[in-house]
Amino acid sequence: MPLTSPEHPSGTDRVAEVAGHRSYGSYDAFINVQGDEPFVSEAAVRDAAAIVTSERFPLGTAAAHADDDILAMPQVVKVIAADDGRALYFSRAPIPWLREPDDAPLRAGIIRQHIGVYAYTRDALAAWVALPPHPLERIERLEQLRPLAAGLAMGVAVVRESPAGGVDTEDDLKRANARWTELSAERP
Questions:
Q1: 25 CB contacts (<8 Å, ≥6 apart)?
Q2: Which of 43, 80, 141, 166 is least surrounded, with the fewest CB atoms within 10 Å of its CB?
């Protein structure tokens, strides 16, 4: 039996359903760890939450520095942020695009891999799910493009740890199962 409605188009919509329960009425902020990223680091969760609880931005997420090899991987979501940490765009495509090969060292310093965690204020969560899915969201299959397209500000915390990676392919699933087995063996 599902804990939330199976009709929700995204994880954020599921979080909004839970946030609407009376027992969570006093909560001011909510965290969503994407189901396809089971090994999100503590730092990613903590830093995304801090963006929201510090009131820097009403929405928060996390990213990590990455090598340019991720740019050719559509299953890896990339993010570009402004100087103040506000997300400008998320994409499965290679962003930023390298127009001139001589600019490769400049690009190398700003490649970021998105980590599947979101933080929301109660109001920002309600605003997000009240929006209809945006064409950009539907094209890229990235729910975070819905609030960006509507002008909602989302901060990006850049964490030091490389992300463990999502579970998007059969190989990813094998790697995740091996990691789970390893972590389970370490626990008493």
A1: none
A2: 141
Alpha-carbon span 141 to 101, nearest angstrom: 29
SS3 for 95-140 is CCCCCCHHHHHHHHCCCEEEEEEEEEEHHHHHHHHHCCCCHHHHHH
Model's pTM, two decimal places? 0.88
Query: The tokens 């990455």 sit on which residue?
Result: 66
- Asked whether the predicted pLDDT for residue 167 surpasses 90, the reply is no
- Domains observed in the chain: 11-186 (3.90.550.10)
The sign of the CA dihedral 34, 137, 65, 81 is: negative
Q: Which amino acid is at 180?
A: W
Element containing residue 33 per DSSP (H, E): strand 29-33
Summarize pLDDT for 52-106 with one digit per residue, the tens: 999 999 999 999 999 999 999 999 999 999 999 999 999 999 999 999 999 999 9
